[in-house]
Write a structure and sequence with these properties.
By secondary structure, the chain is of the alpha/beta class. Helices cover about 40% and strands about 20% of the residues. The strands form five sheets. A seven-stranded mixed β-sheet has the order 12-13-14-11-10-16-17, sandwiched between helices. Strands 7-6-5-8-9-19 form a six-stranded mixed β-sheet, sandwiched between helices. Strands 3-4-20 form a three-stranded antiparallel β-sheet. The chain has two domains: about 250 residues, Aldehyde Dehydrogenase, Chain A, domain 1 (3-Layer(aba) Sandwich); about 180 residues, Aldehyde Dehydrogenase, Chain A, domain 2 (3-Layer(aba) Sandwich), CATH 3.40.309. α3 packs across α4. It is globular, with a radius of gyration of 25 Å.
């Protein structure tokens, strides 16, 4: 495990109070190189370690994470600000991916064709890439690293993690758990840093692959820079997730879902619903139901067990999110619930906001706000709602709320989005599927975790084998034929 040794530091804030609680040293080029070299040195032995031994270490790590889930959640809440229940949910969803990776002996099985040609067998094997890196965001400091390193290590790679400099403690603690689980030294390394460390990772010749989760501009940079260096890259970007509510929907269910999906973790989720697309005939009723629920949300610090929604990650981010609410009326939208006045309170709090009459071309619609702001777009019918969703530049997650099975089936077929919920507002797949969007929400051809994660962290080798009896061996200068 490697941390930064430079003299440059950044503050780590307590989002509930606005006070600095710690600082993190930013890694230098030498620090990044040391981490990579440690991983490269550990790779030959780890990649040759039996599948059963790798699985044994993963099972032990899984048990340690389960044992320490409250400690991890407390670290997440203290630095990110999300409430304890939400942080515990994050740990649980990350743990699912470790559990999936525990089945690596089965997941790495290849294929075999006997007698592909007379006396010739052909088979495929999956092998690790080498040193791989993960660059993870502030909003899920425990879960997203587990999306990456569980499969990467299980497949026989060694790993370098660059967590967000805003909340690095969960990643550092997970490194300690890997040591306790018996993972050999050098297999898992943490390097703290900012953009400099990211760019050094992207240019380092000994890193074979990079996984990234963050905003679309940075994802595009990571993908273009990493692939130009010959690396395999999966870069998950931003989102503008729409929830289409049809006229026949259960409006109480839809209102509960919209509020839960929009304001959980203060909206700092790439799968948060940020736009409700309401069919006009039910729009007024739905807006009233959402506004009523917003008024009952308990906003407060994670340490208060009553709190349902905590603060945002930083003052700059809080002020940026508040600016969307403050400018909405001038753009022609209707502010139904204004939570932006909380920006004057101690800590980085904003209360939930609801903005009606939102349209494409408005800042509040076009941008990924990444905060507790929910917009309402009114449409005539299913066709107009679908067109709106499909014309958006992002394609991460979407949902439809309806009682009509035919309409739901048509929507899942028609919509140009990677993850779809039917009466489910946040359709994050379980660990044995894979997570990933379309369009500007994903750069690369493999989704993260699950089966796609195993594919990303391995490359396939095909072996053609013949073991002839000595007496039948002869020279043949012709090109091999399959018959």
């Amino acid at each position: 495990m490697t941390a930064g040794n430079s003299d440059q530091t950044l503050p780590i804030w307590q989002p509930a109070t606005g006070e600095q609680q710690a600082s993190v040293r930013l890694g230098t080029a030498d620090d990044v190189n040391d981490a990579v070299q440690a991983a490269a040195g550990a790779f030959p032995a780890w990649s040759s370690t039996s599948l059963s031994r790798r699985a044994e270490i993963l099972f032990e790590f899984r048990a340690l994470v389960a044992r320490e889930r409250h400690t991890i959640a407390e670290l997440v809440s203290a630095e990110h600000g999300k409430v304890t229940a939400d942080a515990l949910g994050e740990v649980s969803r990350g743990l699912e991916n470790v559990e999936f990776a525990c089945g690596i002996p089965h997941l790495l099985k290849g294929s075999y064709s006997e007698q592909a040609s007379t006396g010739v067998d052909v088979y495929s094997i999956k092998q690790p890439l080498g040193v791989v890196a993960g660059i993870t965001p502030f909003n899920f400091p425990a879960m997203v690293p587990m999306w990456m390193f569980a499969n990467a290590l299980a497949c026989g790679n060694t790993f370098v993690l660059k967590p967000s400099e805003k909340d690095p403690s969960a990643s550092m603690f997970l490194a300690q758990l890997w040591q306790e689980a018996g993972l050999p030294d050098g297999c898992f390394n943490v390097i703290n840093g900012d953009k400099f460390a990211v760019d050094r990772i992207l240019s380092h010749p000994d890193i074979a692959a990079v996984s990234f989760v963050g905003s679309t501009p940075v994802a595009r940079h990571v993908y273009s820079t990493g692939t130009a260096q010959g690396k395999r890259v999966q870069a998950l970007g931003g989102a503008k997730n729409h929830m289409l509510v049809l006229a026949d929907a259960d409006l109480e269910l839809a209102a509960d879902a919209a509020v839960s999906a929009a304001f959980g973790s203060a909206g700092e989720r790439c799968m948060a619903v940020s736009v409700v697309v309401a069919v006009a005939t039910i729009a007024d009723q739905l807006v009233d139901a959402i506004a009523d629920r917003i008024g009952r949300i308990a906003v407060g610090p994670a340490a208060d067990p009553v709190s349902e929604m905590g603060p945002l990650i930083s003052q700059d981010h809080r002020d940026r999110v508040a600016s969307y609410v403050e400018g909405a009326s001038a753009a022609g939208a209707t502010v139904v619930v204004d939570g932006s006045n909380a920006a004057s309170e101690p800590g980085f709090f904003l209360r939930p906001s609801l903005i009606d009459d939102v349209r494409p071309g408005m800042r509040v619609y076009d941008d990924e706000i990444f905060g507790p702001v929910l917009g309402i777009v009114r449409v005539r019918d299913y066709t107009e709602g679908l067109k709106l969703i499909n014309s958006n530049e992002f394609g991460n997650g979407t949902a439809v709320f309806t009682r009509d099975g035919g309409a739901a089936r048509q929507f899942q077929h028609d919509v140009l989005v990677g993850m779809v919920g039917i009466n489910v507002p946040v359709p994050v797949p379980v660990s044995y599927y894979s997570f990933g969007g379309w369009k500007n929400s994903l750069f690369g051809d493999r989704h993260i975790y699950g089966p796609d994660g195993v594919d990303f962290y391995t490359r396939t080798k095909v072996v053609t084998s013949r073991w002839p009896a000595p007496s039948t061996s002869q020279i043949d200068l012709g090109f091999p034929q399959t018959r």
